[in-house]
Amino acid sequence: MQKLLSTQEAAQLQGLRSLRKQLTMLQGNVHKQATRRNETCPHLAMPAHGRKLGRKAGIGHEVHFLCDAGFQLVGSESRLCQENRTWSGQQPFCKSIDDCASHPCTNGGTCVDDVQRYICLCPSGWIGSNCQTPATSYWVSMSNSSFSRQPRCAENGQGARQCSCDTGFQMRAGGLCQDVDECQLFQLNQQNRICVHSCINLPGSYRCICPTGYLLNPDQNTCEGGHQRPDATVPPKAYQSRLGS
User: Fold this and answer.
1) In the 8-state DSSP scheme, what is residue 167?
2) Coil, helix or strand for 114?
3) Is residue 92 domain-shared with residue 102, that is, in the same domain?
4) 167-200 CB burial, b ≥16 within 10 A, e <16
């Protein structure tokens, strides 16, 4: 009888030890899972001209990136938060699609890439969206960066003829309206420059151009690319205020 009791007691002790071991393992797993839920990867910025899908940054979660129309994604389309709390892949950015790649400007025209479109700067004697039409008397192209056109004229109530120029043009000798070259007027002066980088004059207007790898900001004057912003120590002033000064 005593031997039987000793055997039962030993079995109970063995079962108790096994139960304690299982309980310890279970508590460890619960603690590990709780700790893992609190571990996150660094915040990922949304690319300019694009979107980020997914807000969670915990281990095992993914985020996805898309670009707006007219832009293409460069970098990782999806990134995973890894065990070491770092993101897989590379930070993507949205690059403007080169609409001038097909060389749409004819007759020696110069193509300027824009968002979801292109602009052709036509040589002397040609006009049209692709420089495909011979110039008429209304448009007289002076050069790739300076244009002139006939003024808009009307007679007043006293029979006198009054003429005016469109916005961005000024009356010159001979009665023609000549384009105001904003790039020549303002770009060379560091204190009044209208573009942080390059400037291209357009008929009645102008356009700022960014270096390769940079994108034009919504202010249409400064550029931004990746995580670095080019030096823009002089904020651009309003174009209309400069013409009036």
Assistant:
1) T
2) strand
3) no
4) ebbeeeeeebbbbbbbbebbbeeeeebbbbbebb
pLDDT in tens, 189-217: 667 778 888 888 888 888 888 887 788 88
> Which residues in 212-236 are b (16+ Cβ under 10 Å) and which e?
eebbbbeeebbbbbeeeeeebeeeb
CATH number, position 89: 2.10.70.10
Q: Quick check: is 11 in a domain?
A: no
Lowest mean pLDDT among 52-61, 83-92, 108-117: 108-117
Q: Are 119 and 105 in contact (CB under 8 A)?
A: no
Q: d(Cα 169, Cα 171) in Å, to the nearest integer? A: 7
Does the residue 195 lie in any domain?
Answer: yes
pLDDT, tens digit, for every residue of 146-161? 477 888 888 777 777 7
Provide the phi-psi class of 116: left if phi over 0, else alpha when psi is between -120 and 50, else beta.
Answer: left
Cβ neighbours of residue 112 closer than 8 Å, sequence gap 6 or more = 100, 118, 119, 120, 121, 200, 202, 207, 209
Tokens representing residue 170 in the block: 């000024």
pTM: 0.40
User: Which residue range(s) make up the domain with 74?
Assistant: 50-96
Sign, CA torsion 116/119/120/125: positive
Distance of alpha carbon 140 from the chain centroid: 35
Amino acid type, 99: D
